[in-house]
Amino acid sequence: MNKANKAEFFRRLAARDPAPRTELEYHTPFQLLIAVLLSAQATDVSVNKATRTLYQAAPDAAAMLTLGVAGVKSHIRNIGLFNTKAENVIKTCRILLDEHGGEVPRDRAALEALPGVGRKTANVVLNVAFGEPTIAVDTHIFRVGNRTRLAPGKTPLAVEQALLRAVPGEYQLHAHHWLILHGRYVCTARKPHCAECVVADLCEWRDKRKYLDA
To answer: pLDDT truncated to tens, each residue of the chain (214 aa)?
Structure first.
């Protein structure tokens, strides 16, 4: 996809949804961090269902640490890998209290040093909580980047780096959410909704014709 089409791609996504937001529910950077940590291999719907009661019981790192692993588990049993995630939540809270005054650090290296937090989670926190122009490549963004040829790459990191080069500066803050939502609801893995896609004419996917005509 050429430079002009990349710019038009994001112009249209921005026109459709000028102020996109994460579908995870949270009130503080700490709650966002925990929600994203819990969201690995889980839906936002299931995470939100769990965190509504979890955050009532433990809204911050100190309260979460007091709740303990067993207490966290009691709230997140509907989420995949809840045993490991509960342990990581408590370990993370201990580090936040011991090393960061209970606050979420605005630093990639410090975020990635937290148990269960990788590059994708760090990028989400930096983008959503702190307004950094990062892009967290999940399965949806990976698919959109490769399928449309907007930012092809064989690994999530390669797609992330390609997107950082492809996205015009004025769209970098919200590009993460536009692409996730586009992949989640329009450019789906099976039976993508090409006929309803606002960037279908820009997309370079060779198989889009059969979905446009469907």
So the answer is: 999 999 999 999 999 999 999 999 999 999 999 999 999 888 999 999 999 999 999 999 999 999 999 999 999 999 988 999 999 999 999 999 999 999 999 999 999 999 999 999 999 999 999 999 999 999 999 999 999 999 999 999 999 999 999 999 999 999 999 999 999 999 999 999 999 999 999 999 999 988 887 6
Structure tokens given for 104? 């979420």
CATH number 1.10.490.10 given to 29-128: no
Closest C-alpha among 27, 17, 39 to residue 176: 17
Please name the residue that has the structure tokens 């890998």.
81
Assigned fold of 3-20+135-212: Endonuclease Iii, domain 2 (1.10.1670)
Known catalytic residues are 120, 138
User: Is this model's pTM higher than 0.85 or not?
Assistant: yes
Structure tokens at 17: 């949804």
